């Protein structure tokens, strides 16, 4: 299913552990429905009996884009959530083909999320997810690949996606209190007002 050209869709792109999920949570609290490309890739890995390591997820994302087109994952996400009635968030866009497809088929805005490397490394050490239990050197390699270093046209292009984002968020804070008091929440709320005209 391809959304109506007037349907509001917000795409989220960003570096590893930059806080994309927090941006999604804030928008969900405002009534957006959520499609995660990461979840779709993990489902594909499970079908192939492969563990959800960062490398396997990157490889699977690239392989399916090469086989079926760079828009494959976002089209699959739209088909899975074809019954949505609210505006939609599509999380973890990693290729410009995905961005271009959504620009063509919806009223689309792209939010880019980034944070300093060492801040993201500190977050990864605190995050209890098997795929993220990696050493510093591995994180450097995965981060460079995620941004697009030595990647093919069907590969990871987060760096390029960030360049083309309509809105950029630098999530460099450590949130300790209610998220509503954070700079991140204020940034997302301002974007929300702009795209919904509220």
Note the topology.
Layout: E1 8-14, H1 20-28, E2 33-36, H2 37-47, H3 54-68, H4 72-80, E3 88-91, H5 96-105, E4 107-114, H6 117-126, H7 136-147, H8 158-163, E5 167-170, H9 183-196
Describe the structure.
With 198 residues, this protein is an alpha/beta fold. Helix content is 48%, strand content 14%. The protein has a single domain, classed as 3-Layer(aba) Sandwich (Rossmann fold), CATH 3.40.50. It has a five-stranded parallel beta sheet, sandwiched between helices. It is globular, with a radius of gyration of 16 Å.
Please give a handful of descriptors for the protein shown:
198 residues, alpha/beta, Rossmann fold, 5-stranded parallel sheet, 9 helices, globular
CATH superfamily: P-loop containing nucleotide triphosphate hydrolases
* Count of discrete structural domains: 1
Give the integer mean of the pLDDT values. 90
User: What portion of the residues fall into strands of 2 or more residues?
Assistant: 5-15%
Element string (H = helix, E = strand): EHEHHHEHEHHHEH
> Nearest-angstrom radius of gyration?
16 Å
The unreliable regions are: none
**Number of E-state strands:** 5
Find the structural class using helix and strand composition.
alpha/beta
CATH fold type? Rossmann fold
The rounded distance between the terminal residues' Cα atoms is 28 Å
Number of helices: 9
Give the helix level as a range of percent. 40-55%
The largest pleated sheet is described as: 5 strands, parallel
CATH class: Alpha Beta
What's the CATH architecture name? 3-Layer(aba) Sandwich
User: Globular, elongated, flat, extended or rod-shaped: what is the shape?
Assistant: globular
Strand arrangement across the biggest beta sheet:
2-3-1-4-5
